[in-house]
Design goal:
Layout (H helix, E strand, L loop, with lengths): L3 E2 L10 H9 L11 H14 L3 E5 L2 H12 L5 E5 L3 H4 L4 H4 L4 E5 L8 H7 L10 E7 L12 H14 L3 E5 L2 H8 L3 H5 L4 E5 L10 E5 L1 H13 L8 H13 L4 H16 L5 E2 L8 E5 L7 H10 L2 E2 L1 E4 L2 E5 L6 H14 L1
Parallel strand pairs: 1-11, 3-4, 3-5, 5-6, 6-7
Antiparallel strand pairs: 2-8, 7-8, 9-10, 10-13, 12-13
Helix pairs in contact: 1-11, 2-11, 3-10, 6-7, 12-14
Bound molecules: ligand TLP.
Length: 342
């Protein structure tokens, strides 16, 4: 059975060119710093992200957690949005591994009010934890792929500088934000100390993320990656498709955004389904199915029987994600079937 798989952009498989690059990649032992392909990927990523250095990590989660471990000490407080991926979907790793406590701030569509962050930053008091780190997420997954505006990041950056608290950006889909707004990626990253970007989502590499920051930070992060068992050996075979992801796959994210827009417009016309069409800014779309009277599980099972896959998000909310393996024809075909189901 072939499915129209709209669960996530993580399902994208490597392109033929990526597979060829894997086959012929020059490799060495990366723990010795001797894998030329990894070195090339890290240098390229650092340059694109406007940072001094970068580190190839196995996943977005590992990148975020290495960042938290490197920035914070146990007992520190981590300030982040109430529906951030780090808070909701990383298995409580920030507390399990780094021993930090989380201080969540409810944002509007993923965007935290800079003044709320200012208020949350602790002052000097023997009772208080240290404010160790602020984490931002752009695009914001749970908010439906929303772009956190550059101006908001700038304001948060100014507050963080004044209070001397570093900022880490979970930029799993930062290239989607850049493509959607036309704002260069380094314009976003100028307002953060460190950033994690995923190569394995819309950019279609099979594995991996990049963590970027200044030289001293990446040196320490490399040690944390090793402690976590993330020091890989001849991993140039994994870095080779990552280079193609950064060099050739960013611009095509526009197609995913166009298809998400198409999907939103078509779904909005299906009776009993509700989609905020204007709110779809990138490749993620949230659809309210409450009026159908079906539970998420029932709805998703019916979709699956019609060979469409999507994901549950909240009660009565289904997430659809467009990506390289979903064409506009597939979007149209999927909506035809969904119409019949509803
Ligand atoms: N997100 C996945 C799931 O974990 C929810 C998805 O399908 O969207 N930050 C953000 C903003 C993410 O969306 C994700 C993955 C990650 C970090 C973690 O990346 P991986 O899966 O590589 O650990």
């Amino acid at each position: 059975m072939t499915y129209i798989d709209l669960r996530s952009d993580t399902v994208t498989k490597p392109t033929e060119e990526m597979r060829q690059a894997m086959l012929t990649a020059e490799v060495g032992d990366d723990v010795y710093g001797e894998d030329p392909t990894i070195n090339r990927l890290e240098a390229l990523a650092a340059k694109m992200l406007g940072k001094e250095d970068a580190l190839f990590v196995t996943s977005g989660t590992q990148g975020n957690q290495v960042a938290i471990l490197t920035h914070c000490r146990p007992g520190d407080e981590l300030i982040l949005e109430a529906e951030a991926h780090i808070f909701l979907y990383e298995g409580g790793a920030a507390s399990a591994l780094a021993g930090v406590q989380t201080r969540t701030i409810s944002g509007i569509k993923g965007e935290m009010d800079p003044l709320a962050i200012k208020k949350a930053i602790r002052g000097e008091d023997i009772h208080y934890p240290y404010s160790g780190l602020i984490c931002l997420e752009n695009t914001h997954n749970k908010a439906g792929g929303k772009v956190v505006p550059l101006q908001t990041m700038k304001e948060i950056h100014e507050i963080a500088r004044e209070k001397d608290v570093p900022i880490h950006l979970d930029g799993a889909r930062l290239f989607n934000a850049a493509v959607a707004t036309g704002v260069p990626v380094a314009d976003f990253t100028q307002y953060v100390d460190t950033v994690q970007v995923c190569l394995s989502k819309g950019l279609s590499a099979p594995v991996g993320s990049i963590l970027a920051g200044n030289t001293a930070f990446i040196k320490e992060a490399r040690k944390w990656r090793k402690r976590l068992g993330g020091g890989l050996r001849q991993a140039g075979v994994l870095a080779a498709p990552g280079i193609i992801a950064l060099e050739k796959m960013i611009n095509r994210l526009k197609e995913d955004h166009k298809n998400a827009q198409l999907l939103a417009e078509l779904l909005a016309n299906v009776p009993r389904l509700h989609v905020d069409v204007e709110g779809v800014e990138t490749n993620i779309l949230l659809c309210n199915i409450k009026e159908t009277g079906l539970s998420n599980e029932e709805f998703l099972t019916k979709l699956k029987d019609a060979s469409i896959l999507a994901g549950p998000f909240d009660d009565g909310i289904i997430r659809f994600v467009t990506h390289r393996e979903v064409t506009s024809e597939m979007v149209e075909a999927a909506v035809q079937k969904i119409k019949q189901i509803v």
